[in-house]
Amino acid sequence: MRIIAGKYRGHQLVAFDADHIRPTTDRVKETLFNKLQFDIDGARVVDLFCGTGNLGIEALSRGAEFCTFVEKNPKSLVITRKNFEKLRVPASDYKIVNMDVIAYLKSYEGEPFNIIFADPPFTEKMAHFVMEAASTSAAFGKTTLLAIESQAKERMEDRYGSVVRYSKKEYGDKILSLFCHESALEQDEEPAAEEEHHE
């Protein structure tokens, strides 16, 4: 795994041996950040199920102002901290929350994030429940963009209340979906809904 662009560009993340982690591939990550390239600079970001910290660190590399990394697995948190140390990410750029993601979303009381990344454990098929919690969380505001990865065969709706899916791309058994508040689509702040398939 490597950081694709920005101030940490080309840096490899630490190697690890953890069966519970299946990091976002460079191909999917590049597609995702191409979609968000005009929204990253200065953004407040949260990386849910951060695993290795891959997505959040990529966002910081590309100019995000601050990233909160949420993860309950202690092995993942060790890996994330090692990546911060390897890349010398300033402590002022991030914070780590050792907490269950659903509980975090339900209890969150701060300002909405600009961007939410969510990559739930691929063995648990919980993307639908993450979206249910995120769509009613204070973390999700009218200008928030949310990117979530899910299995092709697990449940995922196109709408969760006022939160709607505007992009869906399939990569084999994985789906990358982007969601926003419906008012953003009405104001043409986001592209029309699209669906793509990749082998």
Automatic annotation (TrEMBL):
Organism: Bdellovibrio bacteriovorus (strain ATCC 15356 / DSM 50701 / NCIMB 9529 / HD100)
Example GO BP: rRNA methylation
InterPro entries: DNA_methylase_N6_adenine_CS (IPR002052), RNA_MeTrfase_RsmD (IPR004398), SAM-dependent_MTases_sf (IPR029063)
UniProtKB keywords: Methyltransferase, Transferase
EC number in record: 2.1.1.-
Enzyme class: transferase
Domain of life, source organism: Bacteria
Family matches, as Pfam families: Cons_hypoth95
Name of this protein: Uncharacterized protein
Keyword Methyltransferase: yes
GO molecular function: methyltransferase activity; nucleic acid binding
